[in-house]
Design a protein that fits this description.
two-stranded antiparallel sheet, two-stranded antiparallel ribbon, 6 strands, globular
């Protein structure tokens, strides 16, 4: 076993990173590919709103797993379920390569039915990974959790880098084409007309999806190796070769949604204490901070996970495919970078986190303004386009930093706090996706730009 002086396995570090990549790579990859998909699928600019609501519905996966855990608390089948999830991910990724552009007529309109079904399957895998992969990593020594989290961050970063390499080929333009036409007498003549031409990227959508599938396969192989390689299994905390560090038993305060400080010396949670909960007054302050963080987390996820991804096409595409492509990919890269920063340079100050949220909200206000102005360009193609890309990157990075900082604060205090943080994350995301779907598809608040070529 290759190890450092801290007695850690580099093999397990590498496998944990590769395993973590599979957590959200399918959905992150699909999202950065949207600049190419919206030009080829019938939903066009509204495609993102459909995908957002499908991803939220896919949270049925972790809900079903939670019900299973409640009904069968003593059955330990997590490893088999993870294998099944990864196999579903591989199969859905393969089908995505073959059928992503297949459409059917539903309610008199053409829809990307195959894509929607496959996105639902991939979303079920990714959403359920949130409640399966971390508990699996907890069976190893805690020093390997960081390696997994690095892989999880790379699940958003790597697809964005590949999408940047792929490009979009440039903005659409009008070009003259010839067409053979028959007149009323059956005579053939050549007709000249202008049509919109969308330049080709460096490689196709199918090749991009192949790359994603290969990554999922690599992650599945890494997971299998983590369970069968002897030198890796020796790092399990239940293994006789490893004695988990113990802490002196003591009481600690647990933040609960009811707001009471519960003293519990028998709890199975990590005994991390509130240093400031020595008095009734400080306990009240901690509870208010907890509730404030939950509200802030719901607000951040309402915007960044639910509402704004659905309207990104209306914000960016009036300025062209290049602006949209850069906004999507750079935003996807900023999120894991700022998440890493929050992990290594955490912030626990309520005032600072509120200030960062306010700064991100200012940029999100500009994004909303560009969306409402669509199909017109707010402040012109140059200034408006540059500010649009900048706004998407800065708002995404700031919100990501605040979200991870809040989750870190909750993790330090109790699993109960972390549970409610995750719950309000999903509630905010679901409401944001639902609202944006209604605004885009039912109320038609946002309007698409159509390139006009002379016939």
């Amino acid at each position: 076993m290759i190890s450092l002086n801290t007695n850690r396995s580099l093999i397990l570090d590498g496998l944990a990173i590769l395993f973590g990549i599979s957590s959200w790579i399918s959905i992150n990859g699909l999202w950065v590919e949207l600049p190419l998909l919206v030009d080829q699928l019938p939903e066009s600019w509204a495609l993102a709103s459909y995908l957002s609501i499908i991803i939220q519905i896919a949270n049925l996966g972790p809900i079903c797993y939670g019900i299973y855990r409640y009904a069968y608390p003593h059955k330990n089948l997590e490893r088999y379920i993870i294998v099944g999830l990864l196999l579903v991910g591989v199969a859905a990724s393969l089908c995505l390569i073959l059928f992503w552009d297949r459409t059917t007529i539903l309610a008199g309109q053409e829809h990307s039915t195959a894509l929607f079904v496959l996105v639902f399957a991939l979303s079920m895998v990714d959403c359920t990974s949130s409640v399966l992969f971390l508990p699996f990593m907890a069976t190893f020594r805690s020093i390997y959790l960081n390696s997994y989290l690095i892989g999880e961050g790379m699940s958003g970063f790597l697809p964005a880098v590949i999408a940047l390499m792929q490009g979009v080929g440039g903005n659409p333009y009008c070009a003259n084409v010839t067409d053979s036409v028959l007149d009323a007498d059956g005579n053939s003549f050549v007709d000249y007309k202008e049509v919109a031409v969308y330049p080709d990227p460096r490689f196709s959508v199918e090749v991009f999806f192949v790359i994603l599938m290969v990554m999922v396969i690599v992650s599945a192989v890494a997971f299998i190796l983590m369970n069968v390689v002897p030198s890796v299994r020796s790092e399990l905390v239940t293994d006789q070769n490893y004695i988990a560090p113990t802490e002196e038993a003591g009481s600690y305060d647990q933040v609960t949604p009811s707001g009471s400080g519960v003293k519990d010396s028998q709890s199975t949670e990590a005994p991390v204490s509130f240093p400031s909960l020595d008095s009734e007054n400080s306990d009240w302050k901690a509870r208010n901070k907890f509730y404030g963080f939950l509200a802030l987390q719901a607000y951040l996820c309402f915007i960044s996970n639910g509402a704004f991804p659905s309207i990104q096409t209306y914000s960016c595409l009036p300025f062209g495919n290049v602006v949209y492509h850069l906004s999507v990919t750079l935003n996807a890269m900023a999120n894991p970078v700022m998440a890493f920063m929050a992990f290594f340079c955490p912030c626990r100050s309520s005032k600072l986190l509120l200030g960062l949220t306010a700064a991100g909200t200012l940029f999100s206000g500009f994004i909303l303004a560009t969306s409402l102005e669509s199909p017109n360009q707010l402040w012109g193609p140059d200034v408006g386009g540059a500010l649009t890309v900048l706004s998407w990157v800065i708002y995404g990075g700031l919100f990501s930093y605040v979200k991870v900082s809040i989750a870190g604060w909750c993790w330090e205090h109790s699993r109960t706090a972390l549970f409610w943080c995750g719950a309000w994350t999903q509630i905010g995301s679901a409401f944001g996706a639902a609202l944006s779907y209604v605004l885009v598809n039912e109320l038609n608040v946002f309007h698409q730009y159509y390139i006009k070529c002379e016939s």
